């Protein structure tokens, strides 16, 4: 009976270890049984003729070895057979050819066997912990979580959540103006879970479009409740973003709801994103109108679409071109990302004004050069000729290339 108490105490100690690792009772019992079987297999060459009975209510474990009864002189394998005399000490009525179950008291095998069992159990629990972490964070992919900065390196930051799980935020997943210090509490989304060699690595992001979406869901009740939906998002992290929203209730102004009274709702999001400017526009299924809204604050004169190639030629008055392109080309890049259309901006030619679109010069000027000029709002010959040297420098072209372009265009008008 004393041996039974020792077994109970041993299992209890493992149960205490289980509580620290936050593994449920049923799983722990399964792990204990599997661990016992692995050690038994090492000791007896096989665990196939063993019954391992876990008693979760009592917290103890019983192990029985099933042996074939043979004559006392015919025992060839003690792991599989038992002599009749010894067998009758277990079951007085057993006969040769039958099977008896011999109880095994695990602790009698000594400290080494118990240490082996504990190491096996710890290894299995570690694997379970990794699986649980991987499963937990896979379910959280795309959701916002908070973590405390534990350490900052050149290429990444290490954070820990309230359960002390380690979270990694690579530098390219941080907003360029992010500056973290040990102890800072940071919000980000779970971007993905890398699980190489059963070693989960939780990757966080503050630059992912979904981070902006989740922030709006938290700050705007109408989005959270499904009255307003986010149809498209485009971001250049830390610089500017555009978000297209649509209301399912005609009484709700989706843009106004997202911005809030005096910007009360959007200001918190802007601060979280390190003063990233956010344009909120009304979504529409009409591609021309959607492109027009996406290029706000510029006023569009007309738009020519190529639906098959997803291209749009946008015509504006000269004074609107720079607004459409935006500082550093941000506005047109975001509009392209938001609408899914490649947008080319052209200076609108007024009636009676002689001008030629740069595309007409593709036989004399390289395509990439024309695209560079169009990207800074110079879509026509006159626009290039009238541009200041400072404006032409924005195209990032060699002086010889610029001179060639000017000569080609001048010769056209001279002709």
From TrEMBL:
Domain of life: Bacteria
Identification of the protein by name: Transcription termination/antitermination protein NusA
Gene name of the encoded protein: nusA
């Amino acid at each position: 009976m004393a041996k039974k108490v020792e077994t109970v105490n041993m299992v209890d100690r493992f149960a205490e270890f289980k509580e620290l690792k936050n593994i449920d009772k049923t799983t722990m019992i399964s792990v204990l049984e599997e661990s016992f079987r692995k050690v038994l297999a090492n000791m007896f060459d096989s665990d196939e003729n063993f019954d391992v009975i876990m008693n979760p209510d009592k917290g103890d474990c019983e192990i029985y070895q099933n042996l074939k009864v043979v004559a006392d002189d015919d025992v060839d394998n003690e792991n599989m057979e038992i002599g009749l005399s010894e067998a009758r000490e277990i079951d007085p009525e057993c006969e040769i050819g039958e099977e008896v179950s011999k109880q095994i008291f695990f602790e009698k095998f000594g400290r080494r066997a118990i240490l082996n069992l504990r190491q096996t159990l710890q290894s299995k629990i570690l694997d379970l912990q990794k699986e649980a972490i991987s499963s937990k964070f896979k379910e959280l992919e795309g959701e916002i979580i908070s973590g405390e900065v534990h350490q900052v390196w050149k290429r990444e930051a290490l954070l820990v959540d309230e359960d002390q799980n380690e979270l990694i935020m690579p530098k390219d997943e941080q907003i360029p103006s992010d500056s973290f210090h040990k102890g800072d509490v940071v919000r980000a989304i779970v971007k993905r879970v890398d699980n190489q060699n059963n070693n989960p690595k939780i990757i966080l992001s503050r630059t992912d479009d979904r981070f902006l979406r989740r922030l709006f869901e938290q700050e705007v009740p109408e989005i959270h409740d499904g009255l307003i939906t986010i149809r498209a998002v485009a971001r250049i992290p830390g610089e500017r973003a555009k978000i297209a929203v649509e209301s399912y209730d005609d009484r709700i102004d989706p843009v106004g709801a997202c911005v809030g009274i005096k910007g009360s709702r959007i200001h918190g999001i802007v601060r979280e994103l390190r003063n990233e400017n956010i344009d909120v526009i009304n979504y529409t299924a009409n591609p021309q109108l959607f492109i027009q809204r996406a290029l706000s604050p510029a006023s569009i004169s007309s738009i020519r679409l190529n639906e098959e190639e997803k291209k749009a030629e946008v015509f504006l008055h000269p004074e609107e071109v720079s607004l459409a392109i935006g500082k550093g080309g941000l506005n047109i890049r975001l509009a392209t990302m938001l609408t899914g259309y490649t947008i080319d901006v052209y200076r609108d030619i007024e009636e009676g004004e002689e001008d030629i679109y740069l595309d007409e010069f593709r036989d004399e000027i390289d395509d990439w050069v024309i695209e560079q000029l169009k990207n800074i709002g110079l879509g026509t010959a006159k626009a290039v000729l009238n541009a200041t040297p400072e404006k032409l420098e924005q195209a990032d072209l060699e002086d010889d290339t610029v001179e060639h372009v000017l000569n080609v265009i001048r010769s056209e008008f001279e002709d």
